Amino acid sequence: ADACKQINRIVQRAQTDDLYGAAIDPLTGELAEENVQGEVQQQLDVLCNTIMLRAFCGASNNVVCAVASEEEPLPRSCADVMGYDTTEFNIMQSGEFVAVFDPIDGSKNIDSSLPVGTVFGIYRAPDGASSGKNGVNLDSFLQRGTKMVAAGYCLYSATTVLVLTLGSGVHGFTLDPDKQKFLQTHPNIRIPDVGSLYSFNEANYREFSEPVQQFLTSMKQSGTVGGKKVSSRYVGALVADVHNVLINGGIYGYPATRDNVNGKLRLLYESAPMAMIMEQAGGAGSTGHGRILDVLPPQRKKNSHSKDDVEPDDEEAGKGIHVRVPTYLGSVENVYELEQCFKFYGEDD
């Protein structure tokens, strides 16, 4: 919650404090290098990433032992984040959980004063998992979403909202700007079983597979869904669009395209946490072919010239952390109808 407050303040002051634009390397004065996603890091990306790293590692009373961020190629141990020696065991490595997050989703929206957000998830480290390279056990991260114990997001918009699930329902909290405290305003959130809202980037319609095209065409031609007129809303920030669907019912989609055959959303710290939230609220999360939470990230492969206890190379290890999946989130009936389109029309060759 404190990290969300800090990021909210940074977002609100981005214009006045000149925090827009690409990050600058303080040592060279040149633009920062691209992140693991192939994107030039923005100043806000760097600041918010640091805030989230320190929030999970420095304020968790050693509960979290390692973290993985969208902005970094590989997970880091909390010992490393907090500046401890990772060659020797220390109290920072004793935590039972690992955290994953996207520190600032939709950061480019800030230039236009549009909503942005933060997404996070927490997994329990597997029993018997031992620390590997730099104090990190990668197997702790490469788990199915069904192993997640908590997930949430912060939405920075007209109001600042924290939505959280601990595996027994979903609750929403709104930041009181005067008291700087989160107050519970949305207890036990339940998404309608069916909704008339759809949130897809239809500029990419021709790039979508036939099942997605048929689903969107059917929804628009139906005129009304669940007794309400069909409506399209798309902000271009995952948190904002999914929150709208969660509250009002309907479906959010980021499909595969010809250029991005697995879509663009990352399984570990975007799609899976949002899917857990949706399911806990009575909705669904799907890849078009099954539950997002059932998807197992690509497992790391041992170096053919290494012994069993030697870590694989970093490039191979990072593939599972940042793997992408087509993502559909929303009301159960809307998601079911989409899955039926995939079964009936199949995939494009």
How would you characterize this protein structure?
With 349 residues, this protein is of the alpha+beta class. Helix content is 26%, strand content 21%. It is built from eight helices and 15 strands. The protein has helices at 2-12, 43-58, 78-81, 210-222, 238-248, 267-280, 314-321, 332-345, and strands at 64-69, 76-77, 97-105, 116-124, 148-156, 160-165, 170-176, 181-186, 197-199, 224-225, 228-229, 231-232, 250-254, 284-286, 327-330. An eight-stranded mixed beta sheet has the order 2-1-3-4-5-6-7-8, sandwiched between helices. The protein has a five-stranded mixed beta sheet with strand order 12-9-13-15-14, sandwiched between helices. It has a two-stranded antiparallel sheet with strand order 10-11. β10 (224-225) and β11 form a beta hairpin. The termini are far apart. The model is unreliable at 306-310 (pLDDT under 50).
Strand and helix map with partners:
Layout: H1 2-12, H2 43-58, E1 64-69, E2 76-77, H3 78-81, E3 97-105, E4 116-124, E5 148-156, E6 160-165, E7 170-176, E8 181-186, E9 197-199, H4 210-222, E10 224-225, E11 228-229, E12 231-232, H5 238-248, E13 250-254, H6 267-280, E14 284-286, H7 314-321, E15 327-330, H8 332-345
Parallel strand pairs: 1-3, 9-12, 9-13
Antiparallel strand pairs: 1-2, 3-4, 4-5, 5-6, 6-7, 7-8, 10-11, 13-15, 14-15
Summarize the structure.
With 349 residues, this protein is of the alpha+beta class. It has helices spanning 2-12, 43-58, 78-81, 210-222, 238-248, 267-280, 314-321, 332-345, and strands spanning 64-69, 76-77, 97-105, 116-124, 148-156, 160-165, 170-176, 181-186, 197-199, 224-225, 228-229, 231-232, 250-254, 284-286, 327-330. β5 and β6 (160-165) form a beta hairpin.
